[in-house]
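Notes, p. 3: input format for complexes.
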Amino acid sequence: IERSLVLVKPDGFQRGLTGEVLRRIEGKGYRLVALSVLTPTREQLAAHYAEHEGKPFYAPLVDFMSSGPVAAVVIEGQDSVKGFRSLAGATNPTDAAPGTIRGDLGRDWGTKVQQNIVHGSDSHESATREIGIWFPDLEG
Ligand code: GTP
Ligand code: MG
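Output follows (140 residues plus magnesium ion):
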């Protein structure tokens, strides 16, 4: 059993896709452990996206992610990190396969950052680190 950190990003939240994302997560059989709606602070985002600091899309990414509310969700299930990445699809929504969240619901909006509806942790270690950023009080 493994946990992963999912964010419904400002584009997905603003478009009213939170329920659809949760439906797909629950339909897959993952359990919801924690759920919160908040507008991320720049400090939270700097920690969350530390690996991307210095990349050309970093500043637009932080601007975008702090532009409005997101839904932060901790999910749990066997191989949930890999499993949610598979539900989400490729980073670029234009490339994402139909059947995935990004493939079915996303497209390229011509902005400086990929507004691709969701974030999902990319490894077990990332998930542990990210859950600590978004849910510091969550028990083991
Ligand atoms: P997340 O689940 O959001 O972490 O997506 P990812 O793991 O598929 O992508 P990654 O962690 O590499 O990048 C984080 C976010 O930065 C992406 O989801 C995009 O919003 C944005 N991003 C990443 N790479 C690019 C890029 O090459 N160009 C642009 N414009 N945005 C990017
Ligand atoms: Mg990532």
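Residues 122 surround magnesium ion (ligand 2) (CB under 6 Å).
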